[in-house]
Amino acid sequence: MRDDATDCDGPIDSPFDGKDDHVALRDRIEFDEAAARAEAEAATHALTTAETAFEAQCRIARRLGGRVEEGRACFGFWTPELQDARVPSGDIFLEVLTPVEPLDLTRAHQDVRFERAWVPVIREDAHCFTAVTGMRAGTREVLGDFYALAWRDAEGGWHRILDPLAMSLPFGAMAPAELYDVEAMLAARGDAAYFEAFRGDAPHKFGPPANILQVHVPTATAGGTLASLTRHYHRLAERVARELPLEPADKLFLGYDAVQLLPVEPTTVHEAGPDFWQEVGGDEDGVTVSLLRPDTTNWGYDIVISGMATVNPVLLETGRPDELVDFAAELHNFPGSPKKLILDVVFGHADNQGLLALNSHFFAGPNMYGQNLDYPNPAVRAILLEMQRRKVNFGADGVRVDGAQDFKWWDTATQTMRHDDDYLQSMADLVQEAAGTRYRPWFIFEDGRPWPEEDWELSSDYRAVIEAQTDDDVFQWGPLTFAHNTPFLYTFWMSKFWRIREILEVGANWISGTSNHDTLRRGTQVSPKLNVNTRLGRTRMEILDKAYDNPANHVLTYVALPGVPMDFLNAMARASWGFIRNQDDRYGVKVVAEEAISLKWQVDEYSYSVPANFRRLKEMGFETRADLVRFFEFLPALVEVTEYDLDEIARLLNKAEPPLAGPEVYTVAALKHMARAWMDDMHEYCNVSNSLPTLDADQAAFCLSLRGFRRKRPWLAANYGPRDRFDYQRPIAGRTLFTALRHGPEGEQIFAVMHMEGKPTAEIDPLSLPVPGIEGAGWELALRTPSIGADYLGGPITLTDSMALVFSRRVPG
Prior knowledge:
alpha/beta, TIM Barrel, 4 domains, 21% strand
């Protein structure tokens, strides 16, 4: 992210440039013992009277974290680690920190002196509570006091326990939290009327939208923040309201009923530093802190669980979580048709850095991502659900649950891992509240069980959660939406035909489409030596771009298949994408080696030569794409043959003849520097704003029309009925030609012909194909893909790869 984040609206003013006359922290705050004891007694009452331990912990979880209530700040922490260490109550305090000089959250770096005060706590077994008057709570305009729980060991050393339920983390999940006035933030939301319209005696239940646009905030706009994305949608709304002409870049974002953000939770931090909150000197009364504006680049799924209730500070232009409320309001107030907000939550695992942010009782052992969570622990279970409740209360209409197959627990009776479907049900049962309206969001689960077993692609039915849940509108990602889809390889569509048949029969509760953050990333990792469909484009970049923004595939998704279509913004913009994460130190070089093949798919000579692109790698000596390609031919091979011995990799790279471009001498430090440069350069290269000037106007207009076609016909989301038909034309004759006939209410029929891959057809009349039910007159051409001339209205035509036609008619009776 740019240190001086700006856009065409001008520079950003910080609300924290000045400060009122300073009052010493110890003179301003006071321990409210009565309120603290009331908090502890409430926890005792819950533990004593609740029917189950889980119910008790759910009641306690509502009181955990820091909150503003009746003129005081109340705090609660779950601290079993203090019991484990036998820490006496007299050595446990709430640590309160406040800057004694202006602190600007929009600055890249600043050294700030903080005053410090210690507040007693009331301990109740594994919980600590306290209450304080006089603390400053953060708002959009005011910076709040920072806090953490702290305890003193027998040698006088101090240790911090961070707040996993914090609602503002300006310096990330590994730093003290900011006390924030969440109720004031939510009370000021700009979409109150939207939620009030759904108010009733029972909680309102949001249902599925017509379609979804999946968005990665850091690459969606040049600004890379929620505020920048909100401004973008505000300008779109103004253009729509004023009925101004729409440019291709406008059309890219329009026509969707919902926007699904990739995870916006705090992610991992730089393994080797620097820390965003680095204390450089202090005493009992204060501490000097070197503060860095968080600058991690991440695709969103490398989370530490702690801080899940709030927003990743990297995404906040102003450092204020209000930006997420603002974005929800902008969507909900969109002219003509409100757009729903879907949040993507990750509670199925934690990165290993989670061990630094949470106590060990949260975890149940390592897994391929980092750490399993201990779902059977009543306190852990309750806290995770409370994190979810607080996050969705920002104003989300829907929730997408990442990796639902990873929610597991160890059954000691059977000595096996079991899926925790009861927990998944609890997630869907949570009641949210916005503007006084109680509601339950729409839920999507990504669940490919029995993944990661080797035969998961064959054996997964993608219906485990749908069949287990009590709601009939629970959705899962469908088989063409999960990972490992490669529509740019020959025979892909015929190889997936059995899955398409499943979608027709049971796909009404599936998310459909092949472009999402995972499939596009997987596509860039495929060897270009495989049987690539060269009819999609002249270059690998064109082939990959068209494969995931394919007009025939869009017709298949939006017209032929049931369910809810989803598109990924980067794919629709034909922007690049990949595994973007610059925090790794230990395995960063290995990750880049695995991503190296994406250079062949997503970067050509011209793109690399643009001065703004890959500037860090060029500064390291990789002046041309050819230089980098040669280095990337060596790196993956050496990572494998040396079993990732960085010293040996560096030694062998220095032996190459002729010498490799890049650093004069390869060292372990140089390799790690290269890995960071690659990730940061790719993050900038993947920004959608880079692709907007070169959007295909015809393609953008066609896709918008197609989305409108689907939205006007919600019945297309239903499973196929007895009169509906879907098949491929026989004989294959070197091409895959799909046909679909669908019947709607009031006698409407829709007929689509889609050339998915292969050789051109002979000249055919689509309405004369041997498809039962299309006989007779009355058909009108409704949609044609861009490569078909505007003069075509029907009759004989030769269809080539990626062409499609959609006809409609109404039949009496």
